Amino acid sequence: MKRLQELQPGRAGSIFTSDLSVNEFLLVREAGFKPIGLVLGSSIYHVGIQLGRWGKNQELETLSQAMYHARELAMARMEAEAAALGADGIVGVRLSVEAREFGNDIAEFIAIGTAVKADQPAPGGASWRNNKNLPFTSDLSGQDFWTLIRAGYAPLGMVMGTCVYHIAHQRMGAVFSNIGKNVEIEQFTQALYDARELAMSRMQAEAEALHAEGVVGVQLNAHNHRWGGHTTEFFSIGTAVRPLRSDHEIERPTMVLSLDG
């Protein structure tokens, strides 16, 4: 809290902190946002154990909920720091998971980014905050953030979806029958497809709750963490966006031809 008080805009002797590169800093300023300070959230979380049936594809819902809740705690604490600074949003957010030596099932979930304050209200005098009255969050780079604002769109928040899935083992007969063959292993294909779909649909549901038009910069990753080869987390994340004006249309670039002679 002492560090946040020293970062308060307008406070004598206050300086901002940022993890933006020099180019990103300049582009964020060009987009009309002033960095206030580095904000972060952390949650050290014990992820419980859930066993899946050896020969069955299934989501491990207890683990899915644990991974989601731990990230939500880290994100919420980062947003609370930004709100305490009076920020309109957080740019360049990084959300990571780091294993700790406290135990095999303990990990630290970290969210960190640069809180920013807009030079002016959004078009029409609207707030840059989202419909939950929270500072927007975005994992876009400074360059992509500048492009988004210049194109007439505003970030609403980072949205995510997760699914921890147990992929069934092959029966011994199937393993031997496939030796030397080029053949699709359909139960593996279906399992990975279903798990990714669950993660994507949950991310889209979060975007709908923010009244977003869409999600940009989506990443869909798979992490095994420490669960072994047949249990995998599928994690999707992106930045929900909306147009700054309801009648907004993206301008097409004008092509200029140079004719010599």
From TrEMBL:
The lineage of its organism: Bacteria, Bacillati, Actinomycetota, Actinomycetes, Kitasatosporales. This is Heavy metal-binding domain-containing protein. It comes from Streptacidiphilus pinicola. SUPFAM superfamilies: YbjQ-like (SSF117782). Belongs to the UPF0145 family. It holds the Pfam family YbjQ_1. Coiled coil: none annotated.
